[in-house]
Amino acid sequence: MTQNLAPGDIAPPSPQPEEQAQSVRVSGPASLLALVPHLLGFQPTDSVVVIGTAPPTGQIRLTLRYDLPDPPDEEIAREIARHATEVLAAQELQTAAVAGYGSGPAVTPVADALRERAGQAGLEITEMLRAENGLYWSYVCANPRCCAPEGTPYTADHPAVEALAASRGPVLASREDLAATLAPASGADAEIMAEATRRAEEHALSLIDRVTRTGRRASARHLIGVAGVEAVTAAIALYQDGEEIPAGHGAAWLTVVLQDLRVRDDAWCRMDPEHRKENLRLWTDLTRLAQPGYVSAPASLLAFVAWQSGNGALANVALDRALNDNPRYRMAQLLRQAIDSGAPPSLARIPMTPEEVAASYEEAGYGTGDEDDADRAGDES
User: Fold this and answer.
1) Residues in contact with 45: Cβ distance below 8 Å, sequence separation at least 6, in sequence order
2) Cα 152 to the chain's mean position, in Å?
3) Which residue, 27, 23, 49, 64, is CA-closest to 158?
């Protein structure tokens, strides 16, 4: 199998202001194991989860999830330990808790590698657990009264996380279930989108053809860029009003015009954190509805908003969709590098205003005939 070293989530669990953030008291292994699925958004299996904490209260600052090597592999175990400790060090975190989910032969090599690397890095591991079939074992506690050799039962319904569970909603059964929320549309929606995308392509080509015949090829791209910005701006407003775009011409046209980097970047700079929920709905819908060849832009925008929201698991699933559609899509590559490095949601800032984006493209000769004949969209293909 392909080893995925990408984090499954990043912390803080929520980018809300401090006064609005919820506190969960982790008083032992059972409460820690009950908390982990809420940090990730799904129940981990065959995984190791590393939680970086900050003094003096032990506030969770970073959550990393890795697939366990299958079959067990000491080299991959050491690579997981190296990546985790380097990310924690980069975030200036000196304490962490670890929870491995799987069999002893699968978890123990990674646990051993983490302990060795943590000692070398001056990182204190306050707890290290293995969980399997409703039981847990501790790698740091040998007291049989609290950590029995035969395993200690635990439950996901721990009182410490009741408030968190109520506010965050249900935890999905697996990462595969999370990925399924972004699966391509099927059935009638897929048929509608296939036909609508074909018509949207024809419409875009007809606009280009009409203007190109006048000898103004660059003006055709400018025309599509203007129309695209208008369509995306209207879609953002629509979702902020609580509505949505169904499968059909509107959704297809959006996916087509987002191929233009001017349109995509304008959409990117409009991702106001105050409207995270609405933006997540918009790009989730378009990622699912987009036809092959048109997934990368909406999926990358979804990844950015998910990262902005502190949901690294969703961000990585969205990036999987983007890079499967186009492995060279630069925005997706850059976001993956940022998330893999453990960069916190606070760094998911909007660098420019719509006006600044427009000015930058004008300075680059967009729509004037001065831009590179290779076409700016080619930078992402």
Assistant:
1) 101, 102, 174
2) 33
3) 27
Which of 263, 214, 276 has its CA nearest to residue 376? 263
Q: Are 15 and 93 in contact (CB under 8 A)?
A: no
Mean pLDDT of 92-121: 96
With H, G, I as helix, E, B as strand and everything else as coil, classify residue 42. Answer: strand
Per-residue pLDDT at 213: 66
Record the pTM: 0.84
pLDDT digits (tens, 9 = 90+) for 7-23: 444 444 444 433 344 55
Q: Which residues pair with 127 in a beta bridge?
A: 97
Contact 312, 63 (CB under 8 A): yes
Mean pLDDT across 256-282: 95
Q: Is the pLDDT of residue 104 over 50?
A: yes
Residue located via tokens 């004008």: 362
Given the structure tokens 């969209």, which residue do they identify? 377
Question: How far apart are alpha carbons 146 and 129 in whole angstroms?
Answer: 13
What sign results for the dihedral spanned by CA atoms 13, 351, 316, 49? negative
Of residues 269, 266, 232, the one with CA closest to residue 351: 269
CA pair distance 328, 1, nearest whole angstrom: 22
User: What is the CB neighbour count within 10 angstroms for residue 353?
Assistant: 11
